[in-house]
Amino acid sequence: MTTTLTNHAPNHAPKKVAVTPTARRGGPASRKRGENLTGWMFIGPFMIFFILFLVVPIVWGLYLSFTGQTLTGRGGGLVGFANYQEALVDPDMWRSMGNTLWFVLISTVPLVLIALAMAVLVNLGLPGQWLWRLSYFMPYLLASSVVSLFWVWMFNPQLGLINAITGLFGAEPIAWLQDPKYAMLGIVIATVWWTVGFNFLLYLAALQNIPEQQYEAAALDGAGTWRQLVSITIPNLAPTTVLILILQILASLKVFDQIYQMTAGGPGGTTRSAVQYIFEVGFTGYRFGYSSAISYIFFALVVIISIAQFAVASRKGLKK
Questions:
Q1: What values do phi and psi take at 16, rounded to 5?
Q2: Could you give the CA distance from residue 108 to residue 191 in angstroms, rounded to a whole number?
Q3: Looking at residue 27, what DSSP letter applies?
Q4: Residues of the chain by 3-state class (helix, strand, coil), percent to 5
Q5: Each residue of 127-186: pLDDT tens digit?
Q6: Euclidean distance between CA atoms 179 and 230, whole angstroms
Q7: Which domains does the chain have, with CATH numbers?
Q8: Tell me: the pLDDT tens digits for 246-293?
Q9: Strand locations in the chain, DSSP E?
Q10: Beta partners for 70?
């Protein structure tokens, strides 16, 4: 559409000026600049916080790992790779790494299987759906300090409910958090009770997206409940299982709160995690440079495990 304007000038004939919609709104370059400005206004606040609280600490921490910086402010000079060389032969560091991997191994399996069982039971349509969902998910909303204190009392050798229940079956009382053989198991039990609700919700959402026609067709073919679970439910949940495994392993590798509050890494360092060791070296031993080096070694381990997980998931075609 073209709009015609008449320009009346003295001693001149009327002039007609053609104004197109593009001319009224500005050219493509002007609109492009406006769109870019709007976009930067939206992402600007996030980018500021992202750079200040993520990028800067990462770069600064990497720099510190090559220095002898301490919490007191002394020894800030460059020491090259000395911190990394020391870390690679540090038995306490490797022991904390081993404790972390052991925690990941024995906590991930029940967190997946128990969450799946809970989701399947709720999805069957049991009476009181809201109560089941609330009771399964409620512990996940609690703070780590509350969960830790609760389970410290539950595992108390003299007054704890756990020993009271096992005692009914003739078992001897166990010092769950004081015995090196059971301390990590006690932390895993507390962690599963605390965090399984999140995995339960993911599985429940995935179950509700499975087409009902698949179950109806299987029932017509004579497939029972167990056969439907194995042949329909579990294969359809494969992408969700991969997602849960990735999230769970990454979260377990960073375990710190419940271990520090329940056992403080004891007894004898048998439950001390990698993150706790980094914390102790930096804030108890005052060696910021050395703790930064350990942090980046641990970061490299997490990256390797993450790449391996994604590679396995992609090879099996489980990612969607």
A1: -105, 125
A2: 10
A3: -
A4: 70, 5, 25
A5: 777 888 888 899 999 999 999 999 999 999 888 899 999 888 888 888 999 999 999 999
A6: 40
A7: 3-64 (no CATH), 82-315 (1.10.3720.10)
A8: 899 999 999 999 999 999 998 989 999 999 999 999 998 889 899 999
A9: 3-7, 15-19
A10: 287
